[in-house]
What does this fold into?
Amino acid sequence: MTDLILRGGRVIDPASGHDETAGVAFADGRVKAIGPDLPGRGAEIVDARGPLVVPGLIDLHTHTYIGAAPRSGSMRPMSRGRAEPRPLLMRGVPAQGISMVFAVM
It folds into this structure.
């Protein structure tokens, strides 16, 4: 059973050779089918016209800024008497569209 269909977006997937306007059907959190006329009985349909629909992309270099974090909370104390901004910074990461962080230096 299909749970979700992204319909009408430009689907680009070099691994499968897709570069076309199509729909993408998902079942149990995985791609079930890609095609122009996917049946949507019982599925949530999302109009994806305009955006690109691509498999997960990894940006190996990004900058996050404390200013994008919510103002609630406080910074954690650090040795040498300075505040440690990392917890505040990390709250700003999802607000900037970043879903995974491998290292914060």
